[in-house]
Amino acid sequence: MQSPSDHAYPDHWEADVVLRDGGTARIRPITTEDAERLVSFYEQVSDESKYYRFFAPYPRLSAKDVHRFTHHDYVDRVGLAATVGGEFIATVRYDRIGADGMPASAPADEAEVAFLVQDAHQGRGVASTLLEHIAAVARERGIRSFAAEVLPANSKMIKVFTDAGYTQKRSFEDGSVHLTLELEPTAESLAVQRAREQRAEARSVQRLLAPRSVAVIGAGRTPGGVGRAALRNLLAGGYTGRVFAVNRALSGGAHEMDGVPAYRSVAEVGEPVDLAVVAVPAERVPEVVADCGEHGVQGLVVLAAGYAESGPEGRERQRELVRQARSYGMRIIGPNAFGVINTTPEVRLNASLAPEAPAHGRTALFTQSGAIGIALLSGLHRRGAGLSSFISSGNRADVSGNDFLQYWYEDPDTDVVLLYLESIGNPRKFTRLARRTAAVKPVVVVKGARHSGSAPAGHAVPVTRVPHTTVAELLRQAGVIRVDTVTELVDAALLLAGQPLPAGPRIAILGNSESLGLLTYDACLTEGLRPLPPRDLTTGATPQDFCGALLAALRDDTCDAVVVNAIPWVGANGVTESGDGEVLAAALRSAAATAPAKPVVVVHVELGGLAEALSAATSSAPPRSGTGPEADPETLTARTPRPFTQPASAATGPAPGEPPPDGGPAERSIPAYPAAERAVRALAEAVRYGQWRRAAADPGRVPQFEDVDEGGAAALIGGLLDRAPADGGVTLGEEDARTLLGRYGISVRPTLPAPTPDTAAQAAALLGYPVALKTTAPHLRHRPDLGGVRLDLADERQVRQAYAELTEALGKPEELRPVVQPMAPRGVDTVVRAAIDPAVGAVLSFGLAGPATDLLGDTAHRLVPATDRDAAELIRSVRTAPLLFGWRGSAPVDTAALEDLLLRVSRLVDDHPEVVAVSLEPVVVAQHGLSVLDASIRLAPPPPRTDLGPRRLPVY
Asked: The whole model's pTM is what?
């Protein structure tokens, strides 16, 4: 057995976690300095819980017990504690045992495990979280299974084990339940872990968005200042809970501020405070956090600046803020935050610096920038859109966009999610959560700081080596709607919130301007849509004409969506009339209500009030029957100079304000755009998202290959890494690369070195004619345009002649490093690559070979592991894909063989994370089969995975 001094304290086992109720706790190894904490903890555990732990009355711990439970070697004996406020709330330990059940050391791979949770914290998911962490520790120390003895009456503990998802055995022996858990993660255990993570993180966000009481700390005694503004906004928004003002400068006794009770500290409030809005200078924040933490506050919105955005000293101040808040079980929005808003009628929380909360809607918005948040709030308000919730997180030192994705995923009040991100702290997790959320509701993202090469001040993120375009494509693969500007974000939000998804790309165009119709038609083609010929209603078209044309388009089975173009129309007297737009809006909404499954968008030019009328009286929720301007003909007549009369052609549809026959919504908010290009771009994003949603229902499968030798590849990789240099990485030689690829059924055409003309001739004779002679010097590799390749050499004379030409034109043989290779069947030269990025994960890439592809960036990417659907889409998504399918009369190549190769490379990288880079270039794809002419592989110890292992909050 090893003594504690033999192993350093494993600080990488420390973790902050979110518990089932949304609070946080810290998990860390137990040390020899924890004796008093352990005794204090044990004294607060009930006699019943002690009995369940020790199978007998055990009122107190002896000195020997305390020594045993606080002295560990961190290998064969390990103890972990969950702490809140620095005090233990639960413990878990394992002891390695041998086949006889007695204490043992490695290679014994089984351990006894036991838990104890303070009664006040039972039901918070503490034990299940500790099980995840102690299991990860055990696997790291070579332990493969846990054994546990549990009394039958201890049903809670039995449930912790049985619900974990691990492979397990259960028996009843000597009056207790004997459980054995295999610790190798399974699909079920990972699913259980992620489901618990989602519930816990969603609950932690809910506590921030729906507090029962709020204290504004730092509200000034006189009007003005950030704190007083936050208090005023909170009260003006109609918050339904209790509100308190806190200012330490107040004198003793009762005080009021803006009509609410005011105190010197949270301690003096005397009532529970769920959320604290912190508006004090950064140097005073630690004492405020301590005051809040010691009196049960659940979350903080820190408006104060002076943290990581101000430099290294501020970054350390920010980290200490997070450590302090989490130690009390609190979560933080900020620092340097603009605030949070929840428009739900039951809450009406405006804990932000926005003087006016947005209208209630069903779109949620998260932004990392306060300035962008203000602009988006203004833009959405101006165009009649409401929000369900709004968060501007500032430095997002704790709560991030990932947390809010967890919440919005199942939030019944949110139908569309909008995100403005300047950095992504955990890209793997973000992609996973975005994919899951996008399967049920749209997720629209605009990414700032794309080309700066660094994260914005205040944001600590993992460094990625892949270009922005690759990240954008991977997000699209996850179903994210990627837009480039905040204007496009709002444009897409209006359409997605108010209209159904298009069933396809066929677009009908109608309106009273031929020129605007042609612009719309061209924009559709640019965005990859399939527009129908525009229908010109002429400038004399009336609202009744628009209604009839829109009804006809919506009933046309050959179109999936309709774009309506409107300019001021010419009246009976020949005078141009723009009106106030309400009459035309009523006509369009009446027609749109007859076909609730088809989206309608409007492009308008100088039509006053049209956009406002189209969105008036509606939120992004499907409106109720009998609302809206056309629901009451008398009201409509009173407000508009020329009331719209529904034409006879619409008689088969529902009357205005009446629900359609299928029970769909009677009316919808119709998005209006001032330019055809903006409307079509938003519609195209909706079309692509709809296609992704339908495809996501059948994502494909990761194939299993019978000829793959995973074990042999693992042994080869292990041996090669054992011989690697001190930095741990190695680029494989040609033979090793060929052998490793061969384990996965990938063959590489042989090459022989040719340092002299004679060896070149001998190599050609050995390989068999015809052959290719090519250079492998780094500056000439994969550059046939520089003349370093000679093909179809049919005999020795041609080989020697080609050798002389190469050396005369390009340099000496020792510089060129010539090789001879047998000719491959003619085909299309392609490139297949895979690489592990520390931030994004394993990425599979494909493109055609040649400088044009590099110049144009015409490479497609998919996350590993790739499915058969991914592989098929990958080769079809590059712009040069037609060359593979018989462009201009050429013969189509064997794309099935190419897909098979992509899937094998994906499988290799997924099975062995030590394979950090693979490059197959060129891969010549012929009519039948393909040939890999060159391969490069790099091995290294795999980077740590932040999306696997036990749940833990990130540390930025």
From this structure: 0.84
